[in-house]
Automatic annotation (TrEMBL):
<dbReference type="InterPro" id="IPR004753">
    <property type="entry name" value="MreB"/>
</dbReference>
<dbReference type="GO" id="GO:0000902">
    <property type="term" value="P:cell morphogenesis"/>
</dbReference>
<comment type="subunit">
    <text>Forms polymers.</text>
</comment>
<keyword id="KW-0547">Nucleotide-binding</keyword>
<dbReference type="GO" id="GO:0005737">
    <property type="term" value="C:cytoplasm"/>
</dbReference>
<dbReference type="GO" id="GO:0005524">
    <property type="term" value="F:ATP binding"/>
</dbReference>
<dbReference type="InterPro" id="IPR043129">
    <property type="entry name" value="ATPase_NBD"/>
</dbReference>
<keyword id="KW-0963">Cytoplasm</keyword>
<dbReference type="InterPro" id="IPR056546">
    <property type="entry name" value="MreB_MamK-like"/>
</dbReference>
<protein>
    <recommendedName>
        <fullName>Cell shape-determining protein MreB</fullName>
    </recommendedName>
</protein>
<dbReference type="GO" id="GO:0008360">
    <property type="term" value="P:regulation of cell shape"/>
</dbReference>
<feature type="binding site">
    <location>
        <begin position="178"/>
        <end position="180"/>
    </location>
    <ligand>
        <name>ATP</name>
    </ligand>
</feature>
<comment type="similarity">
    <text>Belongs to the FtsA/MreB family.</text>
</comment>
<comment type="function">
    <text>Forms membrane-associated dynamic filaments that are essential for cell shape determination. Acts by regulating cell wall synthesis and cell elongation, and thus cell shape. A feedback loop between cell geometry and MreB localization may maintain elongated cell shape by targeting cell wall growth to regions of negative cell wall curvature.</text>
</comment>
<dbReference type="Pfam" id="PF06723">
    <property type="entry name" value="MreB_Mbl"/>
</dbReference>
<keyword id="KW-0067">ATP-binding</keyword>
<keyword id="KW-0133">Cell shape</keyword>
Amino acid sequence: MAFSFKSLFKSKKSESIENKGIINSLGIDLGTLNTVIAKPSGDKFDLYQIPSVVAVKKDDPRKVLAVGEEAKHMLGRTPEDIIAIRPLRKGVIESIAQAQSLLIKAMEIGKKDGEKINRIVIGIPGDSSEVERKAAEDIGKNAGAEYVLVISEGLSAAIGAGLPIAEPNGTMIIDIGAGSTDLVVISLGGITDIETVRVGGDDIDSNIVSIVKEKYDVEIGVHEAENAKILVGMFHCSEDLEISETQVIGKSSKTNRPEKIIIDSTIVADAAEPIISEIIKGLNLVLKRLSPELISGIYNNTVAVGGSSQLRGLKERVCDELKIPIVISDDPMTVVAKGAAIVAAEPRALEPDVRIKAMK
Ligand SMILES: Nc1ncnc2c1ncn2[C@@H]1O[C@H](COP(=O)(O)OP(=O)(O)OP(=O)(O)O)[C@@H](O)[C@H]1O
């Protein structure tokens, strides 16, 4: 799928908004776990984040009772007739009505009282089908935006990270989220290749739960697994990374009593192994298809973003396997929304001078 940005905003509607000079725009990263909202404010961004969780009536899931933080607090504590669910699975909108509520909430958070949002840009996984793109566009329009553009999270991340995407040499983004990983090659302002691997941090969490159950016969919650991952996690790699450990309380399958267990970095690395293997496989496919003209650009300009890129050992593991030095973004969770906000605010976001200005 190759598309260029230059024509994206050439709709009559966007020109008329631009001519009146009244553009209120938002960039939204509609993620599996978190929804991040970026609002251009002068030459910076106002940033907001809400959990991608919606609480609904069990017998009527279209009836949304709470969204975001409020819904997250209901998880596991709700009366039996209320359930808290995630509208996206593996980066893809699974339930339109609930994703709609999430987006409406995101837009409410991102606007000031009485303000109308004219233009939103939403980042979605790069390999989304036309139907999935259209679903994202429709929920944006139904949520009240006049103009909605849906772009690949990877391209958005590259713009948000300030990568030289307009140059012919090529750049690459490795975006490892909760549910999916986007590998995107960009040159001359267009996407030249995308590989989406449907694995991410969520899979690491559920693998930790399984390993702990097998090793200790203790059941732990997925949130405890996620916390342990964030605290002590790493990927296996050739470097001797420091092994640390954390204590987690789970439920003994034998006694049904609380039991304390230790999770150390190697348990997380074992749990993360199938995930990093899939990602390396995806990167191998991208490299196989890559033209020789782009290899030096990729060598010099590959950036990892997304919450799961923060696991130690990623840089080393990718270099061990592929001989490509990568940089881990120091702003991994908000670059997609920032890139989307840059495009929403500035249709000529691809032009390097404009982009540099927007990123200052
Ligand atoms: N410091 C950390 N170390 C390791 N993993 C982390 C860290 N912080 C967050 N994560 C993980 O990052 C993931 C969330 O990342 P992100 O917000 O980029 O995903 P998302 O946009 O919701 O998902 P997707 O892009 O797949 O739709 C979760 O799996 C979370 O556990």
